[in-house]
């Protein structure tokens, strides 16, 4: 039944993870919370976890202004354009590059693990990145002529 | 394709009924779940969380419904037993399609449910309605942990089940899909821990189910959803037991076209024509079950399947039985050479070679099945139109053989005539099937009972055209298929085929002896790609008239 082509599989996981990221980031903007606030924080009733002063930098970019969430969402849209792919990127050099995808997915992992809603997005992005790493290690290539269904001749 | 989303989903009565009932039930459960949470006085503390808790409870109930449904279409043996009685109610062969619809719906409602819970736990922590923080609920309580696990399992299962991945690497799909076991455990465990309660802490008791329904106020949906899971598990155990019953691979025949025929003897295996089975060869893989159409008739003393060596597993099987690709290639070559020397009117394409099993014993095999197909009821119609396209022709091997046996015994039921259509890109690759057709054709006493129509859709080169033109003229047998029936080229025009058939039946030429008052049923049995199925179905609908009832059934793999 053939062998798994890792980059084709990775694409589905990656697209799932970016869809999750977009949705998570959207809710992350509405309900802002730093994921690791429990580390040095204290619990107040009512009010929940009060993060420690040493985490103030994260509070600034996640709770006071949802910068991380917005970046995560933009990154997710950018990644979607790259890997879906958007028509103008199709077949271009960046579209064929696995390292770019791996870097973007790791960046997404880093960004989305920081805010409360992004944990699963981070996990799935990480899995997708690992699948692309595997594709890269195995020396897989994006097929150029895939769109003309294997018929030779003109490029897409 | 020719129809848009609206036409496909709403303008076909059956599809419309499905959509209304299926999605209607989803919306009903959502609304009910929402309403019963919102109006529950005991849960007023939780209701302070407002819309998010109502949404999560509603979506949770919908997910319980989906979780109960997801395994139902996979109860293959149950479906096989109930299908003759319930075939009118639901298309039993669309079970995988239904499984997918439930899965899509499950993904959507999981999104709704999870989103709502993220808001819930955020607010629980903020208001401290329960003395815990959000991450405790997410990662320290049964509900949260099982939920996150189920989501991860869903990501893995859905992505590997994509049709591209499934075709590329069936194993990836097959093994990953068994994560369903853990998914179901997660589902049944998801509401444990007395999650929905009117008390700040969970209220556990020492007897089953270990929580008091006094204070634990969940929907208790596991009491319903667990049954399909138990039945499915039981079915898998039963399949395992059944597969272990005495089975012997008695013969391996290699046809010159490269197909291997496995003849298996299993006395406990009962089936009807047109069904299929799963086969496992422990020497090749101890876990994998591969589906194949049964090509023997129930009257045969053995069960046979024809296997072409096209994938990893089938290659490995070929190697194991001593009919690897090289062997087959050599044999094909030899057969072709012999063919050229042969001066008989029709060649030796039908000859097969039995694999010599003196060197190494034939491998053990296990078979599981049989599983259903609509072609079981060919004998209830007056005219059976059997259409096989490409590889979809295989179930008709068994059916044609079976018809032939019944014809000999004179127990054809109401069946008067059989029209067999074989639409195929290149007929020679199905040499073994031609052999069978030859036998069946040669055995016909009544030339009108069985008509074989072969359509070759491949583009033919100029050389071939000349060959056919010269060799075909006046020859007793068709040069391509070695049948008496002529091969036709190009795609069949279904509309005119059915129109002509309808006309011939009405004028009484087609079925001599049937009076026009009696309603004639023309049953079409199709196996092959969906596009063709649609074209044929449309043709049957167009040919419908007062005295002739055209039915259509499609088989799936």
TrEMBL record, chain A:
Keywords: Membrane, Transmembrane, Transmembrane helix. InterPro entries: DUF7727 (IPR056144). Residues 1-140 form the DUF7727 domain. The chain crosses the membrane at residues 12-30, 57-82, 98-115. PANTHER family: PRO41 PROTEIN. Signal peptide: none annotated. It comes from Dichomitus squalens. The keyword Transmembrane helix applies. This is DUF7727 domain-containing protein.
UniProtKB/TrEMBL annotation, chain B:
The keyword Nucleotidyltransferase does not apply. It comes from the Eukaryota. Residues 236-377 form the FAD-binding FR-type domain. One of its GO terms (molecular function) is superoxide-generating NAD(P)H oxidase activity. Keywords: Electron transport, Ion transport, Membrane, Oxidoreductase, Transmembrane, Transmembrane helix, Transport. One of its GO terms (biological process) is monoatomic ion transport. It is a multi-pass membrane protein. PROSITE patterns: FAD_FR. Pfam families: FAD_binding_8 (PF08022), Ferric_reduct (PF01794), NAD_binding_6 (PF08030). The chain crosses the membrane at residues 16-34, 54-75, 102-122, 142-160, 172-191. It is found in: Membrane. Gene3D superfamilies: Nucleotide-binding domain of ferredoxin-NADP reductase (FNR) module, Translation factors. One of its GO terms (cellular component) is NADPH oxidase complex. InterPro entries: Cyt_b245_heavy_chain (IPR000778), FAD-bd_8 (IPR013112), FAD-bd_FR_type (IPR017927), Fe3_Rdtase_TM_dom (IPR013130), Fe_red_NAD-bd_6 (IPR013121), FNR_nucleotide-bd (IPR039261), RBOH/FRE (IPR050369), Riboflavin_synthase-like_b-brl (IPR017938). PANTHER family: FAD-BINDING FR-TYPE DOMAIN-CONTAINING PROTEIN, NADPH OXIDASE. This is NADPH oxidase. It comes from Dichomitus squalens.
